[in-house]
Amino acid sequence: MFEKMKPLVAVGMAALMAVPSFGANHREAPITALDHPADITDFYAFRSYEPGQTDKVTFILCVDPLLEPSNGPNYFPFDPEVLYSIKVDNNNDAVADIEFQFRFQTEIRAPGVFTGFVGAGTGVNAPANAPAPAKEGDPVIPPAITSLDGPGSGGLSLRQSYTVTVVRGGQSTEWGSLFRKWAVPSNVGPRTMPEYDKLAAQGIYSSQGMRTFAGTTDDAFWIDLGATFDSLNFRTAVLTPAQDNDDATNVNADDVSGFNVNTIAIEVPITMLTRTGNMEPANSPASTIGTWATTSRPRVTVRGGASPADASSWRQVQRMGNPLINEVIIGTGSKDKFSVSEPKDDAQFASFALDPLLARAINAAFGGAVPIPPPPRTDLLPLVTYAPPIAPVGTAAGPVADLLRLNIGVMPTPFGNQKRMGLLAGDGAGFPNGRRVGDDVTDIAARAVAGVLTGIATFTGAPNNRIGDGVNANDVPYQNKFPYVAWAHSGRSSRHVDPGEAGCGTGNCPQ
Ligand SMILES: [Ca+2]
Ligand SMILES: [Ca+2]
Ligand SMILES: [Ca+2]
């Protein structure tokens, strides 16, 4: 896009087009756009707000964007060739101290059946006129799928199990090796999976204070994608105060609505994550962790002279820490390089962060109506170093690195009291202090780029503090419990809320 739109103004417009898109990383870089199973769409990390679980942190890694729920017959298995990882730095050097690795295996249990999932009622048998060699009463369609294993799972032909490996101190330990963990399939429809919510809930596994879930779910992200990519043809660019304050109502259509995504979630005790092994208070220099997710594929060739650390057979395809960095800070020509590099080496990209083109594009596209701070943009350093207001004073800043930083000492905000604008709305347990599924990272990041973190009145007031795409909420309610995302949309009855259709407030969304 940058290459095609040469005029300076057009370049600025093209950059601004990215404003609402950086929340999710759906197909954001050239390589990952071609490798959808390894394409990380979103990464979340937050102190668990499920009642009784607030001494834990939940990580959610979503991959494989824009899954249409009706897209059978194979739907959306995880890729057994991909290593899905969640990494945690707890001593401020942007190098992982703890890693959670997920690998999937696929089995086809009914190889003669034309679809991955089949079932109805208590089963359907051959009628009297069934041609030979079948005879009346022979089972044809198995019972509806009500279980991931054992009775009720007979129609679950394409089934995936997965392993969870915890890597720390150079040691790899398989978590939950005493039981099989099944990935939850897509929601095919009410005949095949009549009690899908119960089926999905079977995919939550618990042991040793940890829980995991893997499966197809609702995409927790939301955005007015269509307006964005129609050459910045925004339906709303600056929200009115009333629109901005209504966290439950969309002014414009959520173009990700009705789509699923593949989700991996893991919840672990905070004491497993801090370098002290303790529950640290928010003002402790040991309270803030940095976390990111990666996807990797087997290396095709092993380069000579690789160090032991590089000797693994995996090559990183993508990584994601902050939803902001790769989307709007890194130049398009560097996005693939960024995807395959390590956070500890992010100083090579620091110039993008300290003078982001996007900020200049916003300034230009609004004809100067949106003033922006001059570079170097040190106000953005809390996103790329351990610094206040996320990490407390006295924390070692560490190198410039794209990590999603989470101060685990900050108590989680109860589900019903959370603000979509997170930290900007005074909700200290929200993005950019970690990221919850309901945080409007699109609007938060746009405003951060416009300078609202500077604390300088010129940049913290309107219109800078009301930039937004007019999509404020997910299309379906989140869960107030692990794994927090909503279960998958039904292939038979899901619907996308499109412009001109019902789904914005009490009326239709604008065209
Ligand atoms: Ca470290
Ligand atoms: Ca959704
Ligand atoms: Ca928004």
Q: Features of this protein?
A:
511 residues; alpha+beta; 2 domains; 8-stranded antiparallel sheet; 12 helices; 14% helix; binds calcium ion
Structural class: alpha+beta
- The succession of helices and strands, N to C, reads HHEEEEEEEEEHEEHHEEEHHHHHEHHEE
Counted by DSSP, the helix tally is 12
| Overall domain count | 2
Backbone shape: globular
Oligomer: single chain
Description of the molecule:
By secondary structure, the protein is of the alpha+beta class. It has 2 domains: 458 residues, no CATH class; 36 residues, no CATH class. 14% of the residues lie in helices and 22% in strands. Strands 3, 4, 7, 8, 9, 13, 14 and 15 form an 8-stranded antiparallel sheet that branches. Strands 1-2-12-11-10 form a 5-stranded antiparallel sheet, with no helix packed on it. Strands 5-6 form a two-stranded antiparallel sheet. A hairpin with a 2-residue loop joins β16 and β17. α1 packs across α9. It is globular and about 80 Å long. The N terminus is likely disordered. Bound molecules: calcium ion (CA) (3 copies). One calcium ion binds next to loops.
